[in-house]
C-alpha cells in the first residue's frame, strides 16, 4: 500500500496502515472518552479530599478514647 505518505517518514507498510485504522476506529467509537477521563480525575480528587477529611476527623474523635485511662 503506497497510497499513504506519513509526514515523519514512517514507511506505509500494511501492518502500519492496519494499526492506524484500528487506532482511528477506537477513537471514533468513543467520542466521550475525554469527558469521561476528566470526570474520573475530578472524582479521584474529590474522593481523596473526602478521605483525608474523614481520616482527620477519625483521628481527632478517637484520640480521646485512645488516650483515656481505665480505672
From TrEMBL:
GO terms for biological process: mitochondrial electron transport, ubiquinol to cytochrome c. The keyword Phosphoprotein does not apply. GO terms for cellular component: mitochondrial inner membrane. InterPro entries: Cyt_c-like_dom_sf, Cyt_c1, Cyt_c1_TM_anchor_C. The chain crosses the membrane at residues 39-57. It is found in: Mitochondrion inner membrane. Its main location: mitochondrion. It comes from the Eukaryota. One of its GO terms (molecular function) is metal ion binding. It holds the Pfam family Cytochrom_C1. The keyword Transmembrane helix applies. Keywords: Electron transport, Heme, Iron, Membrane, Metal-binding, Mitochondrion, Mitochondrion inner membrane, Respiratory chain, Transmembrane, Transmembrane helix, Transport. Belongs to the cytochrome c family. Electron carrier protein. The oxidized form of the cytochrome c heme group can accept an electron from the heme group of the cytochrome c1 subunit of cytochrome reductase. Cytochrome c then transfers this electron to the cytochrome oxidase complex, the final protein carrier in the mitochondrial electron-transport chain. PANTHER family: CYTOCHROME C1, CYTOCHROME C1, HEME PROTEIN, MITOCHONDRIAL. This is Cytochrome c1. The lineage of its organism: Eukaryota, Metazoa, Ecdysozoa, Arthropoda, Hexapoda.
Amino acid at each position: 500500500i503506497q497510497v499513504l505518505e506519513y509526514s515523519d517518514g514512517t514507511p506505509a507498510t500494511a501492518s502500519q496502515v492496519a494499526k492506524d485504522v484500528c487506532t482511528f476506529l477506537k477513537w471514533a467509537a468513543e467520542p466521550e472518552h475525554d469527558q469521561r477521563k476528566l470526570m474520573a480525575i475530578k472524582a479521584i480528587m474529590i474522593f481523596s479530599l473526602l478521605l483525608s477529611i474523614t481520616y482527620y476527623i477519625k483521628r481527632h474523635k478517637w484520640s480521646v478514647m485512645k488516650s483515656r485511662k481505665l480505672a
